[in-house]
Amino acid sequence: SMQKRLNRMLNSSHDSKLLALMDVKGFNPEDVTVTVKDGKVKVLAEHEEEHTTAGGKEYNYRKITREISLPPGVSEDEVTY
Fold it and tell me: What Å distances lie between residue 68 and 53, 63, 71, 75, CA to CA?
């Protein structure tokens, strides 16, 4: 289950703390952009698909954005993802 995997991740990373977990299922790794600026972590996942059907073109567009503030004392260059 997701919770068991999360607990394993938390237990295996003794030095680092998990700030956030995002479900980006259905997105390719290159669809996900993470930027760290001004004490905030910004996550953007965008996916666009185009299908040609008998009725014409169909577009499927999905987007997730999330902004997480870094806890006090955590510097921007410590952030990994």
Answer: 40, 17, 9, 14
